[in-house]
Amino acid sequence: MNSEAFSRMVGRRTVRDVSGEEHARVRAMMMQFLKLDAIKRHVAGMDAEVRRHLDADWHGRGTVAVMPSMKALTFDVMSTVLFGMGRDSAVRRELSAEFQQLVQGIWAVPLDLPFTRFSRCLAASRRGRRAVAGVIAERRAKLERGESSPADDIVTHMLAKGLPDEEITDNVMFLMVAAHDTTAALITFLLRHLDANKDAYAKVLEEQQEIARSKKSGEALSWEDLGRMRYTWAAAMETLRMVPPPFSMLRRALDDVEYGGYLIPKGWQVMYVTNMTHWDPAIFPRPGQFDPARFQDPSAIPPYGFVPFGGGARICPGNEFARVETLVAVHHIVTRFRWRLAAGCDGSFSRYPMPYPSQGLLIDIEPIDDANH
């Protein structure tokens, strides 16, 4: 990721960029909204968004490009659950258009010259920030009138915690990026691996069908249902091991650091690459083999050997949100559809630097009896 491009697109006061006490303060504020008790309240909302999306974008179709579909789904879930914007929200539609343009610039060379991609994306970022500023003003007015609660959405939560408007805007933009591409990539590549590994697919299908049989027609998934999806999440973890959405991250040394006999001077950027441990046969034997059983006992994995969400004090605050969103989506996909790679789609992918499958992972789908949905 181009750090300068990211900062100019998203902002410089995000939980990603601040450090020390300021980082601890912003992170603690986010974790309070994204903690387990809060996420539990949103399972039904995620369930409704997934059902609606599959009805609109998958039902009645013979072929689907999974990655674009999952990007649209994760944006909808994020808009509803994190930001409290309903489907009829004009701001939601505006942000969707600007966001699709903005994220392309995060990976671009940061040259703000006319007619460059970066320039167009920077303009989209400015328009998106104005839209977010409007949301902040509207939520502040509702909060002051006593018409809302900090638990309603993360913008109101940050207002109640006293964050300045610019800092709220930066962190909203950051969350939109962090909650969008990464989870969409996870769901997409999980479907790709299940297509190629029939034994794993059969186990996921059996687990999800058992849960579906326990539900009444149209009944939303519950927190307890997600706890029964142990093999499905193990398959998702194995997908993250093999194809981590961000394959590397940059960190700046705050002081001189000596490591392995080398001196890393203060101020230098340090890049860690997830595949160095994810594909290390000393940690994960036969690393090229898709084997969800590796993650059925997470305690067997050494500390910092598996870091798709980062680690330590900067581990992703939204990892539980991503887990719930992934499990809800996979449940409805595998219980409602069968799929196989479409003719001409070989399942290969490239990075820019996020993984993106050939043809968006084009699959042929057929419905399963979905009377329960």
What can you see in these coordinates?
This protein is mainly α and 373 residues long. Helices cover 53% and strands 10% of the residues. The longest helix has 28 residues. The protein has a 3-stranded antiparallel β-sheet with strand order 1-9-6. The protein is globular, with a radius of gyration of 21 Å. A hairpin with a 2-residue loop joins strand 3 and strand 4.
What's the short version?
Keywords: Heme, Iron, Metal-binding, Monooxygenase, Oxidoreductase. The chain is mainly α and about 375 residues long.
Task: Please tag this protein with its features.
two-stranded antiparallel sheet; 3-stranded antiparallel beta sheet; 373 residues; mainly alpha
What's the SSE blueprint?
Blueprint: H1 3-10, H2 20-34, H3 36-40, H4 43-57, E1 63-65, H5 66-82, H6 90-105, H7 117-144, H8 154-160, H9 165-178, H10 181-196, H11 198-213, H12 223-227, H13 230-242, E2 248-252, E3 257-259, E4 262-264, E5 269-273, H14 275-278, H15 319-336, E6 337-341, E7 349-351, E8 355-357, E9 362-367
Antiparallel strand pairs: 1-9, 2-5, 3-4, 6-9, 7-8
Helix pairs in contact: 1-7, 4-5, 4-15, 5-10, 6-7, 7-8, 7-9, 10-11, 10-13, 10-15, 11-13, 11-15
Stretches where pLDDT is under 50 for at least 5 consecutive residues are none
Tell me which oligomeric state these chains represent.
single chain
- Order the strands across the largest sheet as they lie in space: 1-9-6
**Strand and helix order:** HHHHEHHHHHHHHHEEEEHHEEEE
Q: Strand-residue fraction?
A: 5-15%
Gyration radius, rounded: 21 Å
Helix percentage range: 40-55%
The major sheet is characterized as: 3 strands, antiparallel
